[in-house]
Amino acid sequence: MGPSGRTDSRPVDDLSQSETSSTDAPDAVERSRRGPIRWPVAAEWLLLLASPVVAFRLFEVEPFFRQNGVDPFMYIGYAWDGEDLWARYGPKYYPVRFALTLPIRLTTALFGVEGGYFVMRYLIVVASAIALYLPLRKLGGRAAGWLGVALLLWNPVFLRAVMTTYSDTTGLPATFVFFAALLLAVGRDRGRAPLMVIAGVAYGAAIHSNPILVVVSGTILLPWAVAELRRRRARLLIDAALVVAGVAAVTALGVLYFRVRFGDADIFSPSIDAARSLSGEQGKAFRAPDNAWLAYRFHLYLPPVVLLAWFVTRWRRWRSVSPIEGVMVATLALMSAFFVLHQFVLESSTLETYYYTSYLVVPLLFVSVTVIAGLIGTSADRHGGLWWIVAASVAFPLLRNWWFRRLEFEFLPAVPIIVVGVVALVAATRLAVGRRSASGMALAASGSLVVATGLLLLAAPFAPPLSRGQSFRFDPHYELAIGNSDDSGLEWYELTFDLINHTPPLAAPGEHVLFWYEDGPPMLNALQSAYLWRSSAWQSTFEGMPFIDDWRIARLRDEQVRFLVLLGETPTQIDRGVAALRRAGIGIDWQKRTTFTEGGSVLYFNVVRIIVPPA
Residue 112 — pLDDT band, cuts 50, 70, 90? Predict the structure, then answer.
């Protein structure tokens, strides 16, 4: 209803004419006709470009998330020393993820290890922020756009994805850009082709970061295609061709990259084999044998809460739902349903594994801002109501970092019940007495929604117990994503490059280098993963340095091992390993000891050239 109490049937795109019209997103040609760019527009873009740096410092973002300790470091190896890995072991795992490894290689080569890491993160975060900002500004004005950006920059699901080196590091930002380009094209006739090309390139980058997005993207494309089908049936064929062209261009770049760098253009066969392996018996090892994890994955309850909040705020006001808003909501509902069905019907582990469900944050943030803006309404927005929520969305993580860094909830449903109750109360009030008299309550409820959402994401439950027969579990530790200046993960990242740069290269076909270290220290396990973890480790899962048996000696002979790299966190560990080699009759005719120090992390690195006794 409008401020006067009458039903407002205008599309949401037109509700914020005081801020910006639905078409107030001028391109370079339109700006040139108007003359010089006005300072407010320039300031808007300067602030957008600066926002990732400001947020990183302001919210004390953890610089590098070590995740499960293996895969992120494996991709560092593929990125920086891929030729050597390819020569030693062939195209193992997912070579198709060049949208992750190629940017790592380029930024590291141009800006150094630490500089390259932060330049790459800056670019993918600012791309995500702009992708969120533009559709929300079109839908609800600048305040709505800035609310989306503010929520994004402290969102632990997003930060855990980008502040590491894994499939969602580039897959999630690419999905933001892909989704945003489609949203901006909804209902648009002019300037549509560039948006479709951008969508195609972003989609190509997304699927070449994480192949599961080939399937997940259907939950994005279907609502968009349905929304556009009624007005642009013939145009959709052109749109599809432009998207396919963008995907093809990215894929061709990857094929060329692998052909030039590795001499092999087949990036698909090993990736398909890896996907089949992980979807079969091997993949079931990642699935928890029971559903106890549901009591500890707070972030999974946000989509149904936000969808319910949207429903009650739109009750009896369906005519005000614009096509772009409908696409956002339908995408969130379909994507949520996909992960639920994939987990429980197809018996996968995607819903319980946070780096798969991280993609839910894309439609979730769009719909969350839409709900908050809808609660406050146009009248309150003109008087700065939505800007107060922007301020609250920045203040919440700061207050959390300063005063209550770690919260624990024993009663899981408490926060969702509060959120749903507040939203339902405001919706009922607005329906009963009109928007104007309920604007104050709507403002309070919107602020409560921001805070409650933050509590859901950043409150740490008690540690979930391992299920019977379960040997490991991947925990996101979202409560540590902000308010955490621990640099150890970034130090490990830098030490990985030290290890790669000083490991002897392959001298002859079939000749291997093996790594040996004590089992237990997580840093050594992570760094060695740059050489495909156990593929190059001279040990089993539980028995490492200084344990030697006949199987290990036979492996030295069979794999034509010339060098052995001993890793340690103390010099004593290295000494024990060298002594064990001599006791086993393994000769050493050359060795080189090096110590690498990055911040508070130290790696003792000892390369030995060995002489294996005859059988």
Answer: very high
Q: Give the integer Cα–Cα distance in Å for 495 and 165.
A: 14
DSSP character at residue 562: E
Per-position DSSP letters for 404-451, written without gaps between them: -S----SSTTHHHHHHHHHHHHHHHHHHHH-HHHHHHHHHHHHHHHHH
What integer pLDDT is reported at residue 332 of this predicted model?
98
Structure confidence by residue, pLDDT tens digits, 119-144? 999 999 999 999 999 999 998 889 99
d(CA 543, CA 38): 66
**Which run of H or of E encompasses 513?**
strand 512-516
| Residue 514, beta-bridge partner list | 564
Q: Which of 370, 387, 257 is nearest to 323 (CA)?
A: 370
Each residue of 504-561: pLDDT tens digit?
Answer: 887 666 568 899 999 878 899 999 999 988 788 898 666 888 999 888 888 888 888 8
Average pLDDT, the chain: 83
Burial of 114 (0-12, 13-18, 19+ CB in 10 A): middle
d(C-alpha 297, C-alpha 475), whole Å: 9
∠ CA 393-399-405, rounded to 5°: 115
Q: Are 22 and 190 in contact (CB under 8 A)?
A: no
Mean pLDDT for the stretch of residues 391-413: 80
Residue/partner pairs of 359-362 with CB below 8 Å, 24 or more apart = 359/168, 359/171, 359/172, 359/175, 359/213, 359/216, 359/335, 360/157, 360/302, 360/303, 360/332, 360/335, 360/336, 361/155, 361/157, 361/158, 361/172, 362/172, 362/175, 362/176, 362/179, 362/331
Taking only the tens place, the pLDDT of each residue in 285-326 is: 678 888 888 878 888 988 998 898 888 888 777 777 889 999
Distance between CA atoms of residues 53 and 123, nearest Å: 11
